[in-house]
Amino acid sequence: MLRCTRSWRVSHGALRPAPHRCSRVSVALRCRSSGGSGDAEPRHPPLPLSYRLLEGEATLPAIVFLHGLFGSKNNFTSIAKALAQQTGRRVLTVDARNHGDSPHSPDASYEAMSQDLQNLLPQLGLVPCVLVGHSMGGKTAMLLALQKPEVVDRLIAVDISPVVTTSVSNFASYMAAMKAVDIPEKVPRSRARKLADEQLSSVIQDPAVRQFLLTNLVEVDGRFSWRVNLDTLAQHVDKIMAFPRRMESYSGPTLFLLGGNSAFVQPSHHSEIKRLFPRAQMQTVPNAGHWVHADRPQDFMAAIRGFLA
What we know:
By secondary structure, the protein is α/β, with parallel strands linked by helices. The chain has helices at 77-87, 110-123, 136-147, 171-180, 189-201, 207-214, 230-235, 237-241, 270-276, 292-295, 297-308, and strands spanning 3-5, 8-11, 14-17, 26-28, 51-54, 63-66, 91-94, 129-134, 152-158, 217-220, 223-226, 254-259, 280-285. It has 2 domains: 3-27 and 42-165 and 244-308, Alpha/Beta hydrolase fold, catalytic domain (Rossmann fold), CATH 3.40.50; 167-235, no CATH class. Helix 2 (110-123) crosses helix 3 and helix 5 (189-201) packs across helix 6 (207-214). The relative contact order is 0.14.
């Protein structure tokens, strides 16, 4: 039996329900063995992910957004609302494990993140769905499509490839900078953000990246900390930058949506993309960096609508 609870956000030291326009916000899901059926427990037990589900036409495959490293379901709030209105579809935004309002776990593997979704999506009646994943979320989406193609009606991977991406990312240095941030107790939130921004700036020059990372700064009992599980993410950063080796392919419609100013997806990746996703199309959003949806939201939504049509 499902037990539905609200998704809660930490703000100014108090827990407050997150605003939403949806049917159900978060659900506690447990993996059950079906005594005697021979079903084995998953190697990566699923976690009860926090999510927001916007209502729409149940006969159409829902759009499911998966955020990248250091992100959260809030990254897609305005885009989700707009696409729900424009397409009439249900739209789900999800916090990955170790991010946002979802639980923390020492297991940060793509297999575990895929298992979380294999547990959540059927419970919400969202199979098959249109899976849209950015960066880390894109790799989770790709793995889920390869493992369980029946779950994915269409796949959109945003500025990421099914290969190792360490050469273009600075995520390890971001984590080290975040871990080094030191904020005194009992300072106002505005002051805490300013102090954290100043300390991050010595390593992270781009103010937009710093502002994105600062969305993870939360206050609990007068102390500021990061809501992402920095210790686990730092420990597994090499695995997060890689992609599990797979032999099977996903034959469904697939779009690789790239930022025109980003170097995350290279021509040398195309052969592996085509091996795993033989129906893959490539589309570039001009004047967008790695965070395509933040840099060019209208172009991002237009590309999704075009692919759905």
